[in-house]
Design brief:
The chain has nine helices and seven strands, in the order E-H-E-H-E-H-E-H-H-E-H-E-H-E-H-H. The protein is α/β, with parallel strands linked by helices and 254 residues long. Belongs to the short-chain dehydrogenases/reductases (SDR) family.
C-alpha cells in the first residue's frame, strides 16, 4: 500500500462522480479528462440530464457511464457504489451532490429543512464511508469532498444549508484522519459563492467564483495532495477573520 505521506501522485485515470449533474463536478471532470482521466462514472438519479452529461463527456473522448444513485437512500449506497468498484479500480471519487434549499421558506417548513440536511450531510456520510472503505480495500485513491465556505460560521442568511455543510466538513476531515496511512487521500474543497444555474438570481457575495475556477483548484490540490482547498484562496483569510468575529457583527452582515 502507498502511504498517504508520500509525494504527490498522478491525476486520476478513473473517476466516480457522486452527483453527476453538478455543474462544479462536471467542470472538474472536463478538466481532468483534458489532463489524464479516461473512465468516468456519473452517479445520480436517472434522468435525461444525467444521460446528456455523460454524452457530453464521451464527446471529449472519455468512456462515460451512468449509475443510479440516490443520496436520500443510504441503504442503496453499498450496492450502487459496489457496481462501479466491481468494474475495476477507481482512482478518485468526487462527492459533489447537495442542495442549497431556500432559507426563507425552509426555516418555516421543518420537513424541507430536514431534506436539505439529509441530502447534504446524512447522505454524504453514508456515501463517504462506503467510498472510503472501497478505496481503502483497493489500496489507493482520492476522495474529494465538496464542502462550502458556509461551513465555517453560522450566518442568518443560510444557517440551515451552512449547518449541513459544517457537519459534512467535520466528517470529511475525520474520515481523512481515519484513512491516513492507508493509501487513500481525502481532500475537502471549500468554495465560496459559485455562479451556477442553481445560484442564478441569488445575490453574489464578495470573492464569488465559477465552476471552472473550482475545477482548477481541485486539480492543483490533487497534484499537491492537499487536505483542504479554498476557492478562491483569499477566502481562507476572510473566513479566518469571520470565524472570530463577534456574533453581533455577523448579525448585521446577514
Amino acid at each position: 500500500m502507498k502511504d498517504a505521506c508520500e509525494p504527490p501522485t498522478a491525476l486520476p485515470r478513473s473517476l466516480l462522480v457522486l452527483g453527476g449533474t453538478s455543474e462544479i463536478a462536471l467542470a472538474t471532470t472536463r478538466r481532468l479528462i483534458a489532463r489524464r482521466t479516461r473512465t468516468v462514472w456519473l452517479a445520480g438519479r436517472p434522468s435525461l440530464a444525467l444521460e446528456q452529461a455523460a454524452e457530453s463527456l464521451r464527446a471529449l473522448g472519455a468512456d462515460a457511464r451512468t449509475v443510479a444513485f440516490d443520496a436520500l437512500d443510504p441503504e442503496s449506497h453499498e450496492t450502487a457504489l459496489g457496481k462501479v468498484f466491481a468494474e475495476g479500480p477507481v482512482d478518485m471519487v468526487l462527492l459533489a451532490f447537495g442542495i442549497l434549499g431556500d432559507q426563507a421558506h425552509d426555516e418555516r417548513d421543518p420537513v424541507r429543512a430536514v431534506q436539505v440536511v439529509q441530502t447534504n450531510y446524512t447522505g454524504a456520510v453514508s456515501a463517504g464511508l462506503v467510498a472510503g472503505r472501497a478505496l481503502q480495500a483497493q489500496g489507493h485513491g482520492s476522495l474529494v469532498v465538496l464542502s462550502s465556505a458556509a461551513a465555517e460560521r453560522a450566518r442568518r442568511a443560510d444557517f440551515i444549508y451552512g449547518s449541513s455543510k459544517a457537519g459534512l466538513d467535520v466528517f470529511a476531515q475525520g474520515l481523512g484522519d481515519a484513512l491516513h496511512g492507508t493509501g487513500v487521500h481525502v481532500m475537502v474543497v471549500r468554495p465560496g459563492f459559485v455562479r451556477t444555474r442553481r445560484t442564478a438570481g441569488r445575490p453574489a457575495t464578495p470573492l464569488a467564483t465559477t465552476p471552472e475556477a473550482v475545477a482548477t483548484a481541485v486539480e492543483l490540490g490533487l497534484r499537491r495532495r492537499s487536505e483542504t482547498v479554498w476557492v478562491p484562496g483569499a477566502l481562507r483569510l476572510v473566513m479566518s477573520a469571520l470565524r472570530h468575529a463577534p456574533r453581533a457583527l455577523l448579525r448585521r452582515l446577514g
